[in-house]
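Hello Y.,

Per our agreement to keep a running log of every chain we model this quarter, I'm adding this entry. I've kept the format consistent with earlier entries: sequence first, then predicted structure.
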Amino acid sequence: MMATKMTVIVTGFEPFGDHTINASWVAVQELERLGLAQSVDLHVCEVPVEYQAVQSLLPSLWKQHKPQLVVHVGVSGIATTVTLEKCGHNHGYKRVDNCSFCPDSQCCMEGGPECIDSVIDMDMVCKRVNSSRLGVAVSVSKDAGRYLCDYTYYTSLYLGKGRSAFVHVPPLGKPYSAQDLGRALQAVVGEMLELVGQAEDDDHHHDHCSHQHHQHAH
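Predicted structure for the entry above:
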């Protein structure tokens, strides 16, 4: 493994609708308190529940910190597990945001692909965390909900060429506490960084090889 420091940004969302306290931001703050491995430079950020704010904030986050990975965390009123989202979607944004705004195109990136997958193997992360007896159930999903969560995820996947992840958490107390969710994020992000680190090492080994396989990567 390379000894270079890895940079990860983890974001949560501000309150919206019935979520007067957003479990995602509470969980991210708990993660910040717990910390990640010493070799990881962790930055956290609260994201507004506004389409236009996301469009301006995310490029600056990627540019400023040049992270190896950006993990967005959002709350889902229907989730009962910590849910790892596999992909972001470009179309179907019909719900208005905290500013009562909705994109006219109902789309995230004009001319972008319909769906972008994360480079991270979410099934592998899920399996590893669930087998670690954390006490918090983790599952995977392919539908981040076509609201600010999905919109943010797609934007980050687009900007970061797939080096992004999205984690949905249930509302606080349904059934997990802030501490539970913080521990779950610590485990999940740790596993994700391990996979990203392995992939980067593989890339360095393959640099002198043919690059033909990259043409099929997306």
